[in-house]
Fold this sequence. Notes:
The structure holds two protein chains of two kinds. Chain A is 34% helix and 25% strand. By secondary structure, chain A is α/β, with parallel strands linked by helices. Chain A is globular. Chain B has 15 helices and no strands. The interface between A and B is medium-sized, with 35 and 32 residues.
Amino acid sequence: MRDSEPREPALRVRGLGKDYGGRPALVGLDLEVAHGEIVALLGHNGAGKTTTVRLLNGVLTPDRGEARVLGLDPWTQGTRLRARTGIATERPSLDPRLTARANLRLYAALYGVPRESEASRIDAVLDRFGLVERANDRVGSYSKGMMQRLALARCALHEPDLYFLDEPSAGLDPLAARELRSWIADLAAGQGRTVLICTHDLGEAQRLADRVAVLREGELAALGTPGELATRYGAARLEVEVPEAQADDARAALADHGFVLAGPSEGEEAVPPETSRLHVAAAGRDRAPDVARVLLDAGISLIRLDPADASLEDVYLAVYGGAP
Amino acid sequence: MSARRANARRASEPLNLRAIEALVRKDLGVVVRTPAVLIPLAIVPAIIYVVLPIAMIIAARVGGPMIANELAELERLFAALPDALRTELEGMEPAARMVTLMLGYLIAPLYLIVPLMVASVVAADAFAGEKERGTLEALLHAPLRERDLFLGKLLAAWLPAVAIGVLGTALYAAIVTVAAWPLVGGPFLPAGVWIPLALWVGPAVALAGLGATVLISARVGTFQEAYQLGGVVVIPIVALVVAQAAGVVVLDVRLLTLVGAVLWLLDAVLLVVAFRGFSRERLTREL
Lengths: 324, 287
């Protein structure tokens, strides 16, 4: 029987705060996450993402605030809670001297996977993460990506209700990263599991997350769906195409006039030959004439100028003042 | 619910035996796969339980009478022995007397080094080594009470230390009995010394080394640091060997019972202090 009431959110946090040596690491976090929702936590290193996960999984105690996670108090019912959460920490945290199977056997025992189904669960997760053929090899011989996959397999071993995934795609090749995204999407949409992802990969967050929370210096700086955040932060961008030979002059001219250039958007079309595409961040349709004037005044041949869909990168740039 | 009531309730909850067993199996499994841990565990007992007694018996058989006669210190010690022991040894040939005195009494405390070392090496690997390899975080996030995690780690170091100590002592007894038979003419190891040493004092010494290593491991970042600093606990054992050789003390059942009792009390204090420092919060903050 589950402890949480059907209508209670998977995660409810009020005014959560944590200090390290008097320095605030997390300040007054308010957050609710519904069952089956995927929420991405974004932020620089040290913004408070990992501290948030550690607090919510009951391995750190807060200095302020309260939380209910899966209907449980993480700090007085931590053992019961952690039996229902799965975590992939930033470092895989696997013993390199043991085989993959031995690592999983240990955690099957620690997480209380029934003895009679232990072997089949281990086989299932090894298969799910493509590690069957190397299951009896020592983890020390694994590549970084394989270790990451094994850490994810361990996380899924006991079929938790809530997943904490800290940089889950770190070290994965593009194919494995795509499979990971598919797995995470299925956890939420297909199985009704709740997922909290800490990531620096803004494209991953944009494609996966129902909502995004941006932490800055321990404070929740932004929270909403990617679309809501784009609207709220006016984080539209302009795509500009200029001759490749004039790209540096164009960048310089835009920078001189205070425009911030961003990287390419996820999945955008290929650039035509001998052409460069620039992305002017935090600039909506209303700024298109200004951008055009700057470029033309600088003698740049403007091939194309289009408003583009806002991306999380734009939001992130806006939240962090253009200096991610 | 108050924190105190919550702690009291958690303390009364049953042990998670399956998790404890898994932790013990895992730590022992990695010990046998790690040369830096396994080599001292194999070499030191082999020297103390096998090489040293055989070497002493050979020395006694080859030049025993001469050595024994020239050892004035041995005679002084002999004079200081309890009456019953002195009477037992007086009737022996010099070489047999030397072997009995040396292998049966004088170097007996040296055998405490083995359980101590085994416990310290495995504990250094299980506590400081876990931090060093970056494998602690996943354990801290597992649904285990701190008590069960601590106990699993503790038993992983203590059980092999006691097993190697007891089995090693049995092996030692067999080797010296067979090797010294021609000199002594029969079994000669004093059961009153060796049985309490192996079953009462040895396990207590192992636990003391373990407690010290756990305390040290909380303050260092690597297996090597923990192991090396933990080596200081061998000093009391060396002191006991020296005290015996100097005739200051002679091990007998009463003294060993007392030494063991004091050690068990010390163990209780060490483990309480070590467990108080074994906090999930503190370990997580150090990651």
